[in-house]
Write a structure and sequence with these properties.
- The protein is an alpha+beta fold and 375 residues long.
- It contains 18 helices and 8 strands.
- The chain has 3 domains: 77 residues, no CATH class; 39 residues, no CATH class; 185 residues, 2-Layer Sandwich (Muramoyl-pentapeptide Carboxypeptidase, domain 2).
- It has a 4-stranded antiparallel β-sheet with strand order 5-6-8-7. Strands 1-2 form a two-stranded parallel sheet. The chain has a two-stranded antiparallel sheet with strand order 3-4.
- Helix 13 crosses helix 14.
- The N and C termini lie far apart (100 Å).
- 31% of the residues are buried.
- It binds zinc ion.
- The site of zinc ion has 4 residues, from strand 6.
Length: 375
Amino acid sequence: MKKIKKIKVKPKFGLFLKILGVVFCIFLGVFLFYYKQVNDLKRLGYSNMAAKNILFSFQKNYIMSVGENATLNAAFESDDFVVDNLDTYRKIDYVPHKHFIKNINQLVKVGYSVSDMNIIFAHGDDEAVTRFSKREKVRYLEEFFSVDYAKLDLYDRYVKYSDDTGEDENVTVLFVNLDMDLPDYSDSKLVDKFSIDMLVNKHHHLSEDFVPDDLITIDSEYASSDDLQCSHIAFNAFKKMSEAASKEGYQIVINSAYRSYADQVELSDVYLKSYGQEYVNKYVAKPGYSEHQTGLAFDIGSRTVNVFGNSKEYQWMQDHAHEYGFIHRFTKSYEFITGFRSEPWHYRYVGVDIATYMKENNMSFEEYWALFLDQ
Ligand SMILES: [Zn+2]
């Protein structure tokens, strides 16, 4: 019988296997430890990428003590992360800006406090904050930006307007946001989309060829002359209002509604010849700057009294126009903001919600627009 030779593992090879085993165990241990650490952070709300960077920069304990924090998450995801600013990141309210972390670093360099920075990020988009972060530290930050809708990009104009006029921050921000620090009819914004809440005034204009989307001819029973036109949606509201008024014994009628750019040119010329420039400036909007071109404005009359402001219909409109979506656009109390003298006859359709809000809060359309509609 042949003797079977026993295979013997060479001692050197055995040692190698043992080392391999130990190394494998170490790796497995490290991996499991790492996996658990990443998961701890992810459970707190950090992204995978942020969690890894937190571990590799040895900040896990700090983060665990802070807990969930969107700005810290963004910081650890960012290439702009600066470890010295860690505590600052923690205290800044998160905003979804592309250059958020870079801008925090820059604002720290300029010398802003955490509360300043929170104000800055709350009042501008990414581009506006980036521009702002490149300038020297400014004064009066808290003052102007205590007004919610103050805009970072308008800072210099706030300072100038307030210095020039002595107005407080509320008036300053309102007027500058409405471009009322600029001369009438200059650098005005072009409004090109028809909507019931569009603002047209001495700083917001329509192009020569702007026509309301839903222009119709007004049924002659509602108007004092034939072929008057207006926006369909505004007319439907007027009809309802007129019928309600009529039931209570009040007779309102449309004297003027949609006016094209060319109509306004003609009208301005007529008034200029009869009454002169000063009158035109106060009462007649420049072509492109008249609300009548939107199709949403009506000059309303009474069928019984010539001077509308003296009629019982005017009183009825004061109490009820908002219920149908109309606002008395140029009142005595808003003269300083609309730039037009009181016109008891001029009503503007803005829809029931806005009209009711304005009525309840005693507000001009300019103020409403600056607060809620300005983008
Ligand atoms: Zn009018």
